[in-house]
Amino acid sequence: MAGKFEVYSDKAGKFRFRLKASNGQVVATGEAYETKTAAKAGCEGVQRAANGAQIVETDA
């Protein structure tokens, strides 16, 4: 089973997303969005950015 994005409403009434691995572990979370549509667009942005993204090491 593939991972999945979950869009949810936080305690402040904003919309957020989390990316869960196939084992149910949260591997990424998104910022707060004003609308559910904006949160879904955030998920799509992560999908586009991650497609073919390189892994780089930094000293920070």
Can you characterise this structure?
The chain contains 1 helix and 3 strands. A hairpin with a 5-residue loop joins β1 (4-9) and β2 (15-20). Strands 1-2-3 form a 3-stranded antiparallel β-sheet, with helices on one face. It is globular. It is α+β, with helices and mostly antiparallel strands.
**By CATH's scheme, which homologous superfamily applies?**
YegP-like
CATH architecture: 2-Layer Sandwich
Tally of DSSP helical segments: 1
Overall tally of structural domains: 1
Structural class: alpha+beta
Text of the CATH class = Alpha Beta
Reading side by side through the largest sheet, how are the strands ordered?
Answer: 1-2-3
Low-confidence stretches: none
Mean pLDDT: 95
E-strand count: 3
Series of H and E elements:
EEEH
Q: In percent, how helical is the residue content?
A: 25-40%
The rough form would be described as globular
How would a crystallographer describe the biggest sheet?
A: 3 strands, antiparallel
- Terminal-residue CA separation: 34 Å
Radius of gyration: 13 Å
